[in-house]
Amino acid sequence: MVRVLVLGATGFLGRHVVRHARRLGCELSLASRRLGHDLANADGCSRLLDQVRPEVIVNCAADMGGVVDAARRPAAMLTTNARLLVNLYEAVGAVCPQTTIVQPVSNSAYPGDAALQREPDWRDGPVHDSVLPFAPTRRLLYALAACYRDQYGVRSVNWLVPNAYGPGDDIDPTRVHALNGMIIRMLKTRRRGERRFTIWGSGRPVREWCYVGDIAKILLTSWDRDDQIDPVNIAQRQGHSINVIARLIVEELGGGVELSHDLGYPDGAPTKILDDELFRERFPDFRFTSLADGIRRTIRYYRQVLFR
């Protein structure tokens, strides 16, 4: 039985990782701020690893939000995420360098002008200004993984991930990606009996979306792979505009909603679609949750938590 420590275990992705790890029969240890662990504190992080001595760490710990949230508190977001990563690698190097760290890397780390995101190009240009409070720390993650491998032999398996959506995320629409955020706001709009829904921004940006449970499964089936310092996309090579996603949500809710736009909100990068060639070499038979099914499950979840 593999000893697995999930960091950020009560967060959006972390909850799904925990659920899937239990199905696999892993010996689980959980850590998060809600559970009383301050991973931004270096001593606390070292003590945790000394107690658990994990064979595998699935690192879902991050201070994340949408572009609206990032614009509100950029310095705090950047500083916290840098500390989380530095503390983790310092602690692993000192306490348990034989541990394998498996972690998602947001595709916001790609250059801001990369329409089709290919792994060889992921550091070949500046990130988009809208993700400056977060994306540079994903490139720091790569540097830490490479340097701690070279000096201490720490193994890392890094996956570049698109926008995640699905059940279990925050109920604050500014703290989630656009798909979940629109579901939250649209359900509230309908609850109030209103027939007009406002999309934040132009609705034109195109994003690739991945159901959160699919990401969790991939992370938990990759810890025994070779060192993967250079991250590989978790990808379907499919993108949909925010406007298209909004219409799909309206259809799933039974229609009867008129869409409008508030151009006072930022759009972010125009297009983010991930190339899937390397992913299909590693997981040729993986079947992703369909967008329609994922939206249906997400609506069901938010109906339960918003109106119980």
Automatic annotation (TrEMBL):
GO terms for MF: GDP-L-fucose synthase activity
EC code: 1.1.1.-
Pfam families: Epimerase (PF01370)
Gene3D superfamilies: NAD(P)-binding Rossmann-like Domain, UDP-galactose 4-epimerase, domain 1
Top-level enzyme category: oxidoreductase
SUPFAM superfamilies per record: NAD(P)-binding Rossmann-fold domains (SSF51735)
Keywords attached to this entry: Oxidoreductase
Keyword check for Oxidoreductase: yes
InterPro entries per UniProt: Epimerase_deHydtase, NAD(P)-bd_dom_sf
Domain called NAD-dependent epimerase/dehydratase: residue spans: 4-234
GTP-binding among keywords: no
Protein name: dTDP-4-oxo-6-deoxy-D-allose reductase
Gene from which the chain derives: chmD
